Amino acid sequence: MRIVVLAGGIGGARFLRGLQRASPDADITVIGNTGDDIHLFGLKVCPDLDTVMYTLGGGINEEQGWGRTDETFHLKEELAAYGVGPEWFGLGDRDFATHIVRTQMLSAGFPLSAVTEALCDRWKPGVRLIPMSDDRVETHVAVTLPDSGERKVIHFQEYWVRLRASVAAEAVVPVGADQAKPAPGVLEAIAEADVILFPPSNPVVSIGTILAVPGIREAIADAGVPVVGLSPIVGDAPVRGMADKVLAAVGVESTAAAVAEHYGSGLLDGWLVDTVDASAVERVESAGIRCRAVPLLMSDLDASARMAREALTLAEEVRGA
Ligand code: FO1
Predict the structure, then answer these.
(1) pLDDT tens string 47-73
(2) Ligand 1 pocket, Cβ-based, cut-off 6 angstroms
(3) Shared-domain flag, residues 146 and 62
(4) Do 275 and 199 share a structural domain?
(5) How high does pLDDT run on average in the chain?
(6) Domain shared by 44 and 184, yes or no
(7) Residues 16 and 35 both lie in one domain
(8) Ligand 1 pocket check: which of 161, 240, 242 to mutate, most ligand atoms within 8 Å of Cβ?
(9) pTM exceeds 0.90 for this model
(10) HEC string for the chain
C-alpha cells in the first residue's frame, strides 16, 4: 500500500512512528512542512523535516520532541560569548552538524529535496521524506507587541519559540508559498497514492502551509483516493502546541468539528475525532465528511499505532462507500 502523509513536526512524526508499526510493509512518502524553516546562526534550519527524520531515525530528544538526544550546547554558549544569538533558539552541538551539512550542500547548489535525501541516508527513517517545496517559504505572523503597542510581522519561530504564542496572532502568512512549486516527487507521490493521511499536525502552520503550495491541494482533491485526517484538537484544546492561537488568526474555532470543516469535504473524505468529542461526529458528517470517534492521544507507540490503524480502517470504509 502506498501512503502519502502531510506532516508538520512533533505530532506528524509521532503519528508516522505509529503508522510504521501499524502498517510495516507500507510504502510511505512524507511531504514535510518547510514553512517553519529559518536562517539562524548563518545556517538553514528546517525544524519539521528534522523532527520527522530524527524521530523515525532514532535520534530525537523524546522528552522535547525536537532536537537531538544526548545534546550539549557548547557551540551556542561560545557564540553567545561573542554576543552572537539568537539566545532564544536552542540549537545543540549535535544538531549543529546537521545544519552545517545542510547549509553547505545548499550553498553548493543542491536543492533542499536532494539535501534532505542525503541527510536521510544517515538516519534511515524508513519513509521517503520530501520537503513540500525546494523554494523558500517562510511563515510569518502579524502581532501587536503588548509593551509598545507596535504592530509587527515576525517569523513563525520567533512567535512560537521566543514569544511562546503569548500574544494573539492577527494574521498568518506563508510568505513565498504562492510562488513556490511542489518539490520533485511530491505530485507524483500524491498521484500514485492509495491513501492520503493528515496526521494530528497543526492545520494552519503545518498542513495549511503545505496545502498553500500551488498544485498540492488540487492534486490531493483530484487524487481519487481516500483522504483521512486526525483531529489535533481534543476537547476544544490542542493536544500539544498552541494550535488554537493560529486557528483564531484564520477565523476557525478551536474544535475538532471546525477544523474538519476548515479542510472541507472537497479535500477530506474521513475525519477522526477523540472519544471526548463524540458529539462532533454528527456535525462533521453533515458537512459531508465521514467521521468516527476513537482515542486520539499519542501517549505511547501502541496508542499511535492504534490511531494509525483507525485512520486506515476509515480510509477503507470511505473507499468501499
Ligand atoms: N522549540 C522550542 O520550543 N525551543 C527551541 O529552542 C527550539 C529549538 C529547535 C531547534 C531545532 C529544531 O529542529 C527545532 C527546535 N524547536 C524548538 C522546535 C520548533 O521550533 C517548533 O516546535 C516547530 O517549528 C513547530 O513545529
Answers:
(1) 999 999 999 999 999 999 999 999 999
(2) 8-9, 36, 45, 47-48, 50-51, 66-67, 89-91, 95, 157, 160-161
(3) no
(4) yes
(5) 96
(6) yes
(7) yes
(8) 161
(9) yes
(10) CEEEEEECCHHHHHHHHHHHHHCCCCEEEEEECCCCCEEECCEEECHHHHHHHHHHHCCECCCCCCCECCCCCHHHHHHHHCCCCCCCCCCCHHHHHHHHHHHHHHHCCCCHHHHHHHHHHHHCCCCEEEECECCCCEEEEEEECCCCCCEEEEEHHHHHHHCCCCCCCCEEEEECHHHCCECCCHHHHHHHCCEEEECCCCCCCCHHHHHCCCCHHHHHHHCCCCEEEECCEECCEECCCCHHHHHHHCCCCCCHHHHHHHHCCCCCCEEEECHHHHHHHHHHHHCCCEEEECCCCCCCHHHHHHHHHHHHHHHHHHHHC
